[in-house]
Amino acid sequence: MFSRATRLGGPAALAVLATSVLTGCSHGAPAKAVRTTVVAPSGCSGPKDVSYSGGATAYDVPVPTPDHRAVATQVGAPTLSQVSSGESSYRIASVHMSARVVQNGSYVVSPGSLVMLDPQGRACPRPAHNPLAGAFPLTTIDEQRGADGNVAFLVPADADLANYSVVYVENPTDRRALAKWSKQGTAPQRTVTDACDGPRTAYDRKGVATVHFGRTISIINGGIGVTVTAQAPTPRTLGPSPTVPGDVDGVAVSLSVTARGAEAYVDRRQFVLLDGGGRTCRFGSIPSPGETLTSTLVKPNGSGRYTIIFWVPKGAQPRSWTLLQLTSPTSKRAAAAWSTSAK
Question: Is 0.85 surpassed by the pTM of this model?
Answer without folding.
Answer: no
